[in-house]
Input
Amino acid sequence: MTETSTRAPSGETTSARAVGAHAADAPLEALEVQRRAVGPKDVRIDIRFCGICHSDIHFTRGEWGDVPYPAVPGHEIAGVVAEVGREVTKFAPGDRVGVGCMVDSCRECENCQAGDEQYCIPGNTQTYGSTDRDGTITYGGYSDHVVVDEDFVLRIPDGLELDAAAPLLCAGVTTYSPLRHWEAGPGTRVAVVGLGGLGHLAVKIAKAMGAEVIVLSQSLRKKDDGLRLGADGYYATSDKATFKELRGSLDLIINTVSAGVDIGRILNLLKKDGTLVNVGAPPEPLPVPAFGLIMQRRSFAGSLIGSIRETQEMLDFCAEHGIAAEIEVIPASQVNEAWERVLKSDVRYRFVIDSSTL
Ligand code: NAP
Ligand code: ZN
Ligand code: ZN
Output
């Protein structure tokens, strides 16, 4: 393909400082990886911040399948352009940019042609753990720099701080995309299950779209935060009364839980024709009771991140509405502790690595 040959870098690879793991049960540690030289269509980005997504943990620990170790996770990248290839037209050194979960796709299949690169039929090239076009394995954003084709680089609007914008690149678009697709807005009643990284942004975004927003959390521990973020109601899934009170009352539910949940109980909260969209990605199956679906013509759906076009639209929407993540910025040396806190649902509401500490 001509595309491949024009992308082939001519110069030297560069060494990147990174944090990653050598095995599923190994802690994260400092390591070095090679980045390709800047090709004609490439942008080299000095990473300033990278969010910690629960997917980083699922992936690196081998919960989703085989991993090409060493693994360097991180797909909520915010930084500044350091260098551009000679054919790059969209970016210049100094621009504030982001990279999310994908760094390439086939660009030719039906879904790529329709602008849905995340659903690329042969499979998009993920920011980490994928085989790139040149045969190398991709390494993610727990690192000091990255080289990415300009078509998969996003512009971070001036109104957004780079640290709080970083989580928008995955958590933001993963919730924005289904909220738009299933038309959250004035007159719709939307519930968000799980108030973590994805969940807290889902609340802010759904509220900004004009929907009435309900949070379903394991307990009422974070209720004050949920209401401050914009929720109109906050319920505990540990309380049986929640499922009586909300039964048949919701148009749309976004499930962001990273573990198995009782889908049947949640489905019953939907009105006729309502949709439960699963974005949480636990490795185990999520059993769906047939009657939960057929009785009120309900739908159970899934959604994967969002397209590049949607990601830019989401960043612009967030800048316009003053939306960014609630973050705890950490030095790279605290990544293992941060992962443990994510696993305990003790995150308020996204950890972000300060890349200057690598
Ligand atoms: P997170 O920050 O850990 O949030 C998950 C939330 O789920 C927790 O804060 C907690 O909320 C709730 N939760 C956790 N364990 C639970 C359990 N055993 N039972 C009930 N609720 C539980 O994770 P995240 O980064 O938002 O990611 C969430 C999930 O989405 C992960 O599986 C991730 O891989 C997946 N994901 C999918 C996509 C996609 O494209 N579809 C993109 C990004 C991430 P409460 O404390 O409020 O209950
Ligand atoms: Zn993610
Ligand atoms: Zn494709």
Notes: The pocket of NAP (ligand 1) is lined by residues 53-55, 58, 170-171, 174, 194-199, 217-218, 222, 256-259, 261, 279-282, 303-305, 342, 345, 347 (CB under 6 Å).
